[in-house]
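Wait, mind explaining this?

_____
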Amino acid sequence: MSLINTMYQYSLTSYLDVFEFALKKSIPDSNLERRLSNIMNTLTLNVYNYGCTGIFEKHKLLFSFDITIKLEQDRGNLTQDELDFFIKGNLSLEKSKRKKPFLWIQDQTWEDCVRLSRDYNQFASLLDDIEHNETVWKKV
């Protein structure tokens, strides 16, 4: 966040205070794994709340997004390649062989859709869906 605004710099002492608070406030448990999970969940929430109290309202959504990205990457639900594609789109200079079905679709948008359908199983039918549902996709 310090890249967004130089005011957003936190000291190690501040972080240690938040960490100590999380240790005290997390739910005790005799099982080590559950205790560590409780501490991590409490610490995550406390870091988020502490961060939100010290940033401008207009940056809170970005801060939330950043925390979410880090959590999802840590859980293995988001790869760096997926994040890069989400942020940058398809950067390949090679154009796809499949031609865009409608003139109203921008060239880069079509290339992004082609890559989505090729590289991510969840979007395998995207191109066919676009071609068969022009009215719906034109609204989007």
About this structure: The chain has seven helices and no strands.
